[in-house]
Design goal:
By secondary structure, the chain is mostly helical. It has a single domain, classed as Tetratricopeptide repeat domain (Serine Threonine Protein Phosphatase 5, Tetratricopeptide repeat), CATH 1.25.40.10. Helix 3 packs antiparallel against helix 4.
């Protein structure tokens, strides 16, 4: 099961949305945590353990309990359980990503970065870890580094909806690339189905892009 950190963004009302994604199973495991604020990213807990992962049943249960605690918002219990899991099975990147989400939620950027570094050493193409890395870069004002991390996430996993969502936000609010933002919000919408808030953002972007084009045509 999954959940992700919160992101703070300027114009739009906060999105209260929780997606339980099996991204970690597909990408090697791992979660993401959003920043808080208007136009917030959907929450994500990275990664259940897939059936082929050779982990003893009692250890698998520990991971599932940690993910359940995280999804319920009990980050203290979740952190303890993920750390206990990693003592027994340190090579599973999803647990490191989930710890990164917890640390980011607790505003501990240094610990979140360390956890993501551990996940990416195990799997450099872990989509959820790359998405979380992009979020950390964005919070630190490193917008191009954030873009690179998000783009790598959607390159290795094109159907990773949260990275498309974050690329939409980054391009609209920080890089001022409205056409690129529109494309990523449309990609996100196509992957997750109807999201009425994102639908409004898409309509707004289309209006703004059309208005800019009309202005450009008049100037010519």
């Amino acid at each position: 099961m999954l959940s992700q950190p919160f992101t703070d963004y300027g114009r739009h009302a906060a999105v209260v949305l929780t997606l339980f994604l099996l991204a970690a199973c597909a990408s090697g495991g791992g979660p993401t945590a959003p920043d808080s604020g208007p136009k917030a990213q959907p929450a994500e807990v990275a990664g259940g353990l897939d059936a082929e992962t050779s982990i003893p049943p009692q250890v698998r249960t520990l991971y599932e309990q940690a993910a359940a605690a995280m999804a319920a918002g009990d980050y203290v219990d979740a952190e303890l359980r993920f750390k206990e899991f990693l003592l027994q099975y340190p090579s599973y990147p999803g647990a490191h990503v989930n710890l990164a989400i917890i640390h980011a939620t607790n505003e501990n950027g240094e610990a979140a970065q360390s956890a993501l570094d551990a996940a990416l050493r195990l799997n450099p193409n872990h989509a959820a870890a790359l998405n979380q890395l992009g979020m950390l870069h964005r919070k630190n004002g490193k917008f191009l580094e954030a873009e690179a991390a998000y783009m790598k996430a959607v390159t290795v996993k094109p159907d990773y909806a949260l990275a498309h969502y974050n690329l939409g936000i980054l391009n609209e609010l920080y890089l001022q690339r409205l056409d690129v933002a529109l494309q990523h919000f449309e990609d996100y919408q196509a992957l997750v189905g109807e999201d009425k808030q994102v639908e409004k953002w898409i309509a707004d972007l289309r209006r703004r892009i059309a208005a800019a084009q009309r202005t450009a045509n008049v100037a010519d």
